[in-house]
Amino acid sequence: MKLYPGQKATDAFALVPELATAAAEPEADLAALAELVHWCVRFSPAVALDPPDGLFLDVAGVAHLWGGEPEMLADFRARLAANGLPFRLAIADTPGAAWALAHFGQDGAIAEPNGQAAQLAALPPAALRLDADTAAQIERLGFRRLGQLLELPRAPLGRRFGAQSLLRLDQALGRAPEALAFRRPPTPWFARLAFAEPISAPEDLARVAVDISARLCAALEAKDQGARRFELAYHRLDGKALSVTVGLSRAGRDPVRLGKLFAPKLETIDPGFGIEVVTLSAHEVEPIGARQAWLDADHQSTDEALAPLVDRLVNRLGESRVWRAAPFQSHVPEQAATRGKPLGPAAATPFWAPETPRPVRLFRRPEPVDGVIALTPDDPPSQFRWRNRVHRVRRAEGPERIAAEWWKAEIEQVEVGHVRDYYRVEDQDGGRFWLFRAGLYEPAQPARWWLHGVFG
After folding, report:
1. Looking at 173, 201, 222, which one is the last position of a domain?
2. What is the value of pTM for the model shown?
3. Looking only at Cα atoms, what is the longest distance across the chain?
């Protein structure tokens, strides 16, 4: 008596008269599987969907938190069983081998490192995740075990059953890579704390944030590493994972500082009936040294002194609201700056020539000026009025002609009106301004003048 997916309902009832049936809901099943991904974060920060009914967990480097892979598998099994979920589990070096053992091998199998070939040998060809027709064709030819396929020459095997069969075989044995769409990028920097009794008090949540940060930061320090982003997850008894993230402007590993950054965000955590597990993962990890730049602790670089303040502002206000103007490679003045990281090295040199300096203050939008007196076609203005005040020009430099980036627009949209002639002028009071005339001089049309910035 055997039931299988895709079997006709009448055939299934003939085999099992008391069979209970229900309408399939693929969308709901996929949504439930996605929720299970979030639940599995307590075991690994890297979880990938394997629709319609499976998950891949990258457990490299995290099994020691349970005392080993058998202990971690036993904990995973107990939690799934407590939630009434049917399952089959396996651990192997590759996703393909783990899938094969979980579906066709012994439940709970753990393949030895580099030893999955021996355990795969006894499994049927369908364990390679081949399409049903290819797997059936292989079995019709008398190949009942993968071990028999491994003994065949590769070229005839590929010609007979297609390149996909060779790829799946190589992926299972670790000869070819396999890309998985993880919920987030896999990271080996992961820490976990489990509690004998659930916690829910705000002071306990803040305390364990520091405790788990100390554990992960110690691992980072042992390898001379630091991270720019940390994600803390509180796992409730009902399976929900509530996450908060903090970022650092400079890679770091100070648990006390991380605890202070996490503290304001813990107000959003609803512990429900209690938190049973806390996990912390580090991302954007990079080497940092334990360097001391000054013998006197009061002397620090500007970035080092500002880093704690910048981190507090960024994590409270958001990354998009804390930035520093940085040069951008464009000769159009209003496009020559962009938002950069608040801390970090500045550009070595500007993108404009030293003999054509730019104003200290560049207006977001050029402001119109009137009452301009200037000889045509290219002489600087001798007088202009801005904000209801007349300025008489004493000194002037220019013009510096700047055109629009015509190569970024359609050719029919390029006009001479987009050309600007800039002048650096100084008035009778010593004020210095950056003016430009829009468009080329045309006898029948009055020139339009604008003020784009001020020097000092």
Report:
1. 173
2. 0.59
3. 104
